[in-house]
Each structure stands twice: as structure tokens, then as C-alpha cells.
Amino acid sequence: MRALKLLAGCVALALAFPAASQAEELTIYSGRGEALIGPIIKQFEADTGIKANVRYAGTSELATLLQEEGDQSPADVFWAQDGGALGAISELFADLPAEMNEGIAEAFRNVNNKWVPTSGRSRVLVYSKERVKEDDLPASINDLTDEKYRGKVAWAPTNGSFQAFVTAYRVAHGDEATKAWLEGMIANDTKVYKNNGSQIEGIANGEIDFGLVNNYYLGRYLVTDKDYPVAMTHFASGDVGNLLNVAGAGIVSASDNQETARKFLDYLLSPAAQQYITLQGNEYPVIPGLIVNTTLESFATIQDISPRIDIDQISDLEGTLALLREVGLL
Fold first, then answer.
1. CA nearest to 118, candidates 237, 296, 275
2. Do 34 and 81 contact (CB within 8 A), yes or no?
3. What pTM did the predictor assign?
4. Which pLDDT tens digit goes with each residue over 8-31?
């Protein structure tokens, strides 16, 4: 039934986005992984006749590249993994019509209309169902510097969403407190992994007991194995470790292809694309009225437990990268 509804949505989407009358191309810099967004881009090409040339890399890497390229950038669209990176280079984006953000849930909306959110995600703590008892779960992300968690926790310092979280920590608690937490985690022998998925696999393999990831990763493993030995939880309400963030996309102001780029952004905000993102990607849609992904915590709950940090406030990516270099994590 779910597949039929998704198929029907794609048919409706094709009718809403007629094929290009002439050959059009679009260059997309994507900090989002190909495994998730590749099918959306292929469907966009099929429905519109527009050819998409995609460069995949880390969000912070692409943000830096766009700054270096400036007016010479070949990119038309930057699709980033987190709102912090979008805010950090917002001056490189063309202004968008206000109506593009009007139908988007207020918690995700970019009030300056420099980019549009494409999905929401929450930071979570993943843990071993076999080795961790309920009493072992920390109330705060700050508790992970305690001796009881020595050598048992993983993180991914090069990951864009982790870096956005560190920026949020700086906003909430200041640079000195953030540096102290990072150094405390390092001193507590926190294990470095390359990304979110490898942390989850490390828990399943018995290498570590806890990991700091985005909410949607674990669902990918549970789809193929409902008994996968990893669970996830949040910290106490309001803890910065529960950061609610977004993925989003903006149109590069240097682009000579902005009308086509707008078609792509409209496509990402369409009901069918949003339905795919939430049902297949386990992320929160940014528009209402869709089939609910029952594996996700309710959006109302996520809003309630998240720290009160405006997405636009977590834009100092360069300051965060400098801090991570200072403590030796980059």
C-alpha cells in the first residue's frame, strides 16, 4: 500500500512538473549522500527532462569550495546536510520569493528567504540494546565526559551534522564551555568514526556502546533487521544534544540558470518528494498533510524536547572548524 501511494504521488508530481521543452541542465553541489537523494534526483530528471549534474561531497567541504569559487562557481544549487552550513554562506545565495517558505513548518523556515529547508532531523544518542541498561543512559550530553563512559562513546568530528551540533553548543553555552566539553570527551577516550552509520555498526559489532548521530540513520538498519541490536534515545528536555536541525538548499547567486534551479527547489518541496524523504529517509517532512512515518518520534515531541536555538544562529561554521582544529579533532 505504501509503495502504491508513493507511486501515485510520483505520477501526480510528473503532472505538476511538465517536461522541459528544451534541453536544460542543472549543476548541484550535494552534501547529502547519494544513497538517499540519488533516487529523488533521477525522478526529477525523468519528470522534468532536466539533466542534473551532481557533485557529492561533505557539506562543510562544499561550503568551503563555494566560498573559494565565488562568482566563478559552476554550481546552480547547494543542497546541504545542515542549516548551519547554509547560514554560513547565505551571502552566496540568491534571494528567494517569500512564498517558497510560506507552506513550510515554522520551526524549519528560513525567515530571510535565502534557502529552503528540505527535511528535518533530530540529534540522538544511539546505544547497545545488549550491553546498556536504562540506568546507564545519560540525562545530558555533558554526562558523557564521566568516567563511567570512558572508551564507550563514539562521534564523527568530520561529519557536517556533528559540526552543526558543536556550533549550537557554542551558541547555547559559549566557546569556553564547548572547548571544555570537547576536551573532556577526548580525555574520556571517545572513539572517532568516519560517519553516523559506522558508529551504529560499531555498536552492533561490540566496539563501542554509544554514538552521537542523527535520528534517521538507525531506521535504515531496522528496515532490513527489526531485531538490530541498537536503539536510540534523546537526552532530557531542552538539552543541546537534542538539537533539531534541517537539511536545505539554496540557489547560488552566481548561477546563470536560476529559473531551472527554482524548479528543482519547488520539486524538493512537493508532496511526493517530501513523502519519499520521510518514508524512505526517516526524516521529518517540512510540509504538512503527509503520511506519517510511524518509526519517528512525533514532531510535537521533538519540538518540545529540543533546545531553543534558532537555526539561523548556528551559522558560524568557520569558528567551529577552528575550534575542532584547536582541540585536535580535525
1. 275
2. no
3. 0.82
4. 444 445 445 555 545 799 999 999
